[in-house]
Specification:
- The structure holds 2 protein chains of 2 kinds.
- The radius of gyration of chain A is 25 Å and the shape is globular.
- In chain A, 40% of the residues are buried.
- Chain A is built from 15 helices and no strands.
- Chain A has a single domain, classed as Orthogonal Bundle (MetI-like fold).
- Chain A is mainly alpha-helical.
- Chain B is mainly alpha-helical.
- Chain B has one domain: MetI-like (MetI-like fold), CATH 1.10.3720.
- Chain B is 77% helix and 0% strand.
- Classes of the chains: A mainly alpha, B mainly alpha.
- The interface between A and B is large, with 89 and 94 residues.
Chain lengths: 295, 276
Amino acid sequence: MTAATPQAGLDAKPRRNRPYRLAGPSWIIPVLLFLAFFFVIPLGANILRSLQAGQAATNGPLFYYIKLMTDAYYGGVMVETLKVAAISTVLCLIVGYPVAYFMVRFAGRWNAIIVFLLIAPLLTSIIMRTFGWRVLLARRGALTTLLFDWGVIAHPISLADEPFAVYLGLVHVLAPFMILSITAVLQKVDVRLEESARVLGASALGTFFRITLPLSLDGIATGCILVFVLTTGSFLTMLLLGGGKVTTLSLLIYQQFNVAQDTGFAAAMGNLLLFIGLICLALQAKFLRRSGVKS
Amino acid sequence: MTALAPALPVRRRRRVRYGVIALALYVLMFLGFIAAPIVSVVAVSFSTASFIAFPIPGFTLRWYWRILEYRPFVDALIVSGEVAVLSTLFGTLLGVPAALALARSRATAAAIVSNFLLAPVTVPAIVLGFALLYFLSSLSLGISLTALLIAHTVAGIPYIVRTVLSVYRSIPPDLEEAAAILGASRWQTLLHTTLPLVRPGVFAGGLFAILTSLDNLPLSFFFGSANTNTLPVVMLSYMENQFDPSIAAVSTVQMLIAIVVLLIADRVYGIEKLTS
């Protein structure tokens, strides 16, 4: 194709080294200015705010951070945040891995349909999906009625407003992200490796745990980090399904903003949340660089 | 070899098949789990009972009329649509040129800038919204449609940049070279060659940005006021006071809108081309 140009020969070599460039560096300037002004400066100001506003002005710049770490209640919220994120990540992995495995190894032409059914819920609002669990778990909701009819529960009681409901809602929203992260990597695992293991006498389970699972670790890592970060950032599920029994950092920011209006404290909590996210991102970058997987 | 070959696969397939059937059943159950809350919300939106009850006692469209009667729902729907479309438009105007400039560069600086443009998506929306509210307030833009638009544009840029970057990288420069050699100016090359080539990327990214914006409660609720409330913000505040099926009806309408947006995208461009 490059040879088709009139003056190939002499020109061809330099052109191959530096391909034709339509856009110059100046094309980047507007978006850089926009993000510098409305993304970097606000987040920077937020850090300053957490060190200077409110009680931080009188009690030292790190007042709010120390309060978050050492206060019994807020320390508990920190632990709760990490606990909820860790549990829902593990749940998504356990629930999602078999689905991902089925999609890649056995689904065949059904794969496209399953992918569609996993992505389709993204067209509905998170409020709808969370409200749906309230509908199912309400005192006379579909699931509650069913469980009562089967005799699993003695009285038709509301199952919402429990930590159980929060995990159900989180897994429902986040499991597709886990599954799609795993299928992306699992697709590249050569089936012949599994077949060789079987031919050489490994059991089906042995093959899975010794060959398939280790080879899909990249997808598991990507999915886990994604789900973990998304969980720490979400508060709607905790707000609508937790009934006040599950308080995480982001829910606390929402409540602080709505009720208390302690801006310095809310800023400090936001920065802590951001910090958790950055650590996860750094972990992911390390993982991906080591294995050279393309995102 | 020839004697063994038929015997081995037959035994293997038989043993594996039960496991596969069990796995298939599990996947079916999982898909049911994914669909259950959405289906039940649609069902409840037609319920004659004003509380949640299953099976629904009767069929009515009353809750859909309630949406039209309750002004905040209608106003918020309009605000949501405006913000989603306009912020995506601004995000496209800012993001596409940058992505075109960055995609072909192999410099380290270009990689750093690309990552920077993708960064807003990794910041929790609740943190971005909070930080932006106080910053924009200091510019006396506080709670306004402009502020809401700025916030959603920041959140939308990564989606557009990401898809345009990947689409443009996969297109060889030959076509644009040909256009330039044949005498097209920069603008002509851009308009007639480059933009048509990257259109799937712009489209897919824009679609993501619109859908995310419509549902971005953590970002929107900081800028909430009577004339800047987006639909999720109004829905949440309604749910905190009342608990009737009109929320189910609004949710169903919102889902239908998203489906219509997708169908239009399909008509204009074709979904297969968007997802590939």
